[in-house]
TrEMBL record, chains A, B:
Acetyl-CoA dehydrogenase-like C-terminal domain segment(s): 461-588
Cofactors required: FAD
UniProt family annotation: Belongs to the acyl-CoA dehydrogenase family.
Every Acyl-CoA dehydrogenase/oxidase N-terminal domain range: 78-154
EC number, as in UniProt: 1.3.99.41
Pfam families in alphabetical order: Acyl-CoA_dh_1, Acyl-CoA_dh_C, Acyl-CoA_dh_M, Acyl-CoA_dh_N
Residue stretches making up the Acyl-CoA dehydrogenase/oxidase C-terminal domain: 281-444
Function of the protein: Involved in the assimilation of dimethylsulphoniopropionate (DMSP), an important compound in the fixation of carbon in marine phytoplankton, by mediating the conversion of 3-(methylthio)propanoyl-CoA (MMPA-CoA) to 3-(methylthio)acryloyl-CoA (MTA-CoA).
GO molecular function, one term: flavin adenine dinucleotide binding
The organism's place on the tree of life at top rank: Bacteria
Name of protein: 3-methylmercaptopropionyl-CoA dehydrogenase
Residue span, Acyl-CoA oxidase/dehydrogenase middle domain: 161-269
Source organism of the structure: Roseovarius pacificus
InterPro entries in the cross-refs: Acyl-CoA_dh-like_C_dom (IPR025878), Acyl-CoA_Oxase/DH_mid-dom (IPR006091), Acyl-CoA_Oxase/DH_mid-dom_sf (IPR046373), AcylCo_DH-like_C (IPR036250), AcylCo_DH/oxidase_C (IPR009075), AcylCoA_DH/ox_N (IPR013786), AcylCoA_DH/ox_N_sf (IPR037069), AcylCoA_DH/oxidase_NM_dom_sf (IPR009100)
Lineage: Bacteria, Pseudomonadati, Pseudomonadota, Alphaproteobacteria, Rhodobacterales
């Protein structure tokens, strides 16, 4: 059975030696001292590895079952959910007045990586609730907040997000679900929503559905979409639960993975709903949470890569097969462990160098969310808004690829379900799709985020990279191994941006045909930047006489691997981008 | 439900306009006139799309069930197997004297792509039988051939290959299964084999297991391995079936995909076996079939990419979502079809340009198998031996990636099982693992095939590329769009080979750390070569006044896409290779 070990040490390194959270001037960050975050991560790690991880394969093999309108979650999920609630893990970063812990988002993200890595399907029940609660927190009336938030913060009630319909996903303007005003401030919501994660299950007393719908007579298309609160059970004025609302689960989808989460077709038959935020401003309400939600999905990509890597390493050390070509390394055994073989190393180093770079990138993004939300820092908001599609798209694409590499280390044992490696790949696959398919992330990046604010965030990004290089190029080792490759990769990114500027005006397809490659090119530059910064931190620790020299030397070697072996991808992406729209758009549709 | 359309037209183009099979001087090729191959492919295509394809999702959802030692295949499989037998599709390229059709392997490969594309799990029952029959054909005594081949050629009896044991897959020298001589020419075979495809099922009267085992007292390790014929039911002298042999299925594995094929744990408890070939020469016997078997797996990678692509194209044309950024293309509909969006095009062109290049590469490889086996052409044997790991490794890695791209076109609908896209990805995944995991293919390529025969085959490959470029560089259009990029990519491949030569002698890890990238670099150069040759053929057809100009213009545009958008990967692989062993091998094992 696969296992999960919380990467506490690496998270501590990122939080304190790279991001220096406890000395940052963001409100709430002064509490994030190393001892405190270590204690939180330690406890979260215990829950992850001891409770959630053993249930991961159970959830996969049992799945969720719909019987007579009731969804049964896999064996053990209810108990584990109780433990998560009792431990106070359901609302780390929600305000204390509603029962949250008011911790910074950056810490919630680190904890979230642990829970997702241990059991993605399970953690989604809490994650969706957190997303819905955040929407109510930002857009709800005081009454709505008082009615829903305390029970959602504790996960007594869970939440869902209802966007997709059978005929529309990305293009929500085509939505057919309608909400008829009833004159008493409430609405009757009617329509069908699909792919609703945690739409129905047996782990909560009530489920609070957030539903996008159109109010008849409103504007056409996406501008006529409003957001509604539709509880499964009506909530009485005293807070007790009333009668069942007109919403039900019609079907559970059979999926490639995340079987432990109930992905429901939800039928709304004149269900009572309450407007959340303003009429026809439903998309805006969704968008305010989008950075967080997408960063959360990027986190899932990293988390599955991490757990798959951990198990691949264990197997590579344990499985005896063949002999090292440079001479036997395990003379007493019948063969050497897999890890002696260079191609197994290549695979593990690809994984390790991605994971640690991605974790730094993710937590940097989360820190900027805090700077924006807690500190009102507009520059941080602009930067994280620019980088969000990169975090989501690049981390989930690469995260999935890494689970495939990890699975491959197991040979045939990776293909059978017994070892759990197949599940990591199947679960990781969804993150490339939901919360905006990665092609949509690339479109968002190139079509909206690059030109945003006159290009200010992207210029700020380049200035930051240049600034870091300039500031540190006196350090010869850092320059050669890290800054020079970063400079080269960053030039490729700039050249790609320049190509879009020069050609995209005349023909937007010239930019959009390269959008996906641009997202990956950008992702590599970000990870290159993270590695250069981590290398600097590791050098500083070694020069400062840190006792755990192996940790910092490993960090440097892993970073050098990324710069030498992964960053060369930027030239390829640039070449693809600079070939422009012609090769991509050449064929008439009927010739495909 | 997904569909499959046999790519007959494209296969005909490759067979007749690229490979010119009917005018080649290989024995049997003169029969391969265009009308004849068209008729064969047409009929095979009907069976594939009308019979095998509709059973693909059935096989996936039902899987195989073991009850009381008997394995039940999915509903409809038995009938379909009868149709395959009745149509004479089970032994296209086996000799007529044993009931085969004696057709060239190249045609069998084209037909095999169709069957695999329509239903990989089903086709494996026949494929494994073919492999086992080929081994008996080459290594069996006259009596063994007479006893087994006619029934295997007709698939009245099916076959299996038993190599892997729980503790050893790649490193078969660790094998524990033993075969005790009984003094009467037979052996008692005892041991456990795992991952045995089609090990037990209900579609054949008998199952002929080929089993690797050690004869006690023989040489240690891989040199003491022999190959045995172990029938499920003993065969009486008159050819009738006798008593059940001591072999049974202990378990069916739960797998990520190919659920329609029964992957069995096979227990041999003193089962009666007969030596096939010579004592202790079992691995050699396996190796003689290895090129074909591995090319057959490469074919599966291509086949899954093809069927996934076909369905992605259908969906992209059908699904209305968003508007073309350059102006509405479907004004009467609520939205434009997905295929108007540049990033969807990018994905479909990646798929299409891979698939058509891969098909040419595959059939060229199959043609060389014929040149070697039928024509005794040692140069062809050397070349196909060199390219086999590239065909297997590159086509299955890329084929899997393409199924992921195709699945992504469906958004959330790609993740649920209903549309069948998940199955294509899950089924394609195994091809990267079995018949030698792709890391082992890369090792074979760099460690064995490059130095083989003093490097003669790889030099011949470079000469061929250079020769083709030189011969055609007077053609300006061909030169700019195809020959120049091919020359550049080929230089990268040569530089990589040079790096291995200069550094691998001192330290073999310098070569092996780059072996995987070398396999991909080589694959891109091969597909670049195929595209350059196909472009030449397409130009010739257009200049010759071919009526179907759209087909040839599409061929040229698709080829240009490959050269511009995919070939730039070669520089990245070279950069990774030239970074050498240090970054890969830097960490002590305990630091992973």
């Amino acid at each position: 059975m696969p296992t999960y070990t919380a990467p506490t040490k690496d998270m501590q390194f990122v939080l304190h030696e790279l991001l220096n959270v406890s000395t940052a001037d963001t409100p709430g960050y002064s509490e994030l001292e190393a001892d405190f975050t270590a204690a939180v991560l330690e406890e979260a790690g215990k829950l992850a590895s001891e409770v959630l991880s053993p249930l991961n394969t159970v959830g996969d093999s049992e799945g969720c079952v719909l019987e007579n309108g009731v969804v049964r979650t896999p064996t053990g999920f209810r108990d584990a959910f109780e433990q998560m609630k009792e431990g106070g893990w359901t609302a780390l970063d929600l305000p204390e007045e509603f029962g949250g812990q008011n911790m910074p988002y950056v810490l919630g993200t680190a904890v979230g990586e642990m829970f997702s890595g241990a059991n993605q399907a399970f953690t989604m029940y809490q994650g969706l609730t957190h997303g819905a609660a955040s929407a109510i927190l930002v857009h709800g009336s005081d009454e709505q907040k008082a009615t829903y938030l305390p029970n959602m913060a504790s996960c007594q009630w869970t939440g869902t997000m209802n966007l997709t319909e059978p005929h529309c996903g990305t293009d929500l303007g085509l939505m057919r679900t309608r909400a008829e005003p009833q004159g008493d401030g409430s609405y009757k919501v009617t329509g069908q929503k699909i792919f609703i994660s945690a739409g129905e299950h047996d782990m909560a007393e009530n489920i609070i559905h957030l539903v996008l719908a159109k109010i008849p007579g409103g504007p056409e298309g996406i501008k006529g979409v409003s957001l509604f609160i539709v509880p499964k059970f009506m909530v009485n004025e005293d807070g007790s639960l009333g009668e069942r609302n007109g919403v039900s689960c019609g079907k559970i989808e059979e999926k490639m993975g995340i079987h432990g989460n109930s992905t429901c077709v939800m039928n709304y038959d004149g269900a009572t709903g309450y407007l959340l935020g303003e009429e026809h401003k439903g998309m805006r309400a969704m968008f305010t949470m989008m950075n967080e939600a997408r960063i959360g999905v990027g986190m899932q990509g990293l988390a599955q890569a991490e757990v798959a890597y951990q198990n691949a390493v264990d197997y590579a050390k344990d499985r005896l097969q063949g002999r090292a070509v440079t001479g036997t390394e395990n003379p007493d055994g019948p063969a050497d462990p897999l890890i002696v073989h260079p191609d197994i190393r290549r695979s593990l180093m690809d994984q390790k160098s991605f994971i640690e770079g991605a974790r730094a990138f993710l937590l940097w993004g989360a820190k900027m969310i805090d700077q924006s939300h807690r500190g009102g820092d507009d520059d941080a908001e602009g930067m994280v808004s620019l980088l969000t599609p990169v975090i989501k798209g690049f981390l989930t694409d690469e995260g999935f690829d890494m689970t495939i590499l990890a699975q491959q280390v197991y040979g045939g044992h990776g293909y059978i379900e017994e070892w759990g490696m197949s599940q990591f790949a199947r679960d990781a696959r969804i993150a490339m799709i939901y919360e905006g398919a990665n092609g949509v992330q690339a479109l968002d990046l190139v079509g909206r985020k690059l030109p945003q604010n006159g290009g200010k965030p992207v210029m700020a990004f380049f200035d930051m990279v240049k600034g870091f290089i300039k500031e540190n190029e006196g350090d010869e080792a850092l320059k050669k191994d890290f800054l020079d490759p970063l400079k080269e990769a960053s030039k490729h990114l700039q050249a790609a941006g320049m190509f879009f500027m020069q050609n995209g005006m005349k023909n937007p397809n010239e930019a959009l045909a390269g959008s996906y490659d641009f997202m990956h090119l950008f992702g590599h530059v970000c990870l290159g930047l993270m590695w250069a910064q981590m290398a600097k931190a590791a050098q500083a620790a070694l020069e400062g006489g840190a006792s755990d020299t192996a940790f910092y030397e490993t960090k440097l070697a892993t970073g050098r691997y990324y710069m030498q072996r992964r960053l060369p991808a930027t030239a390829m992406h640039l070449a693809r981008i600079e070939s422009g729209a012609d090769p991509v758009m050449a064929l008439p549709a009927e010739q495909f």
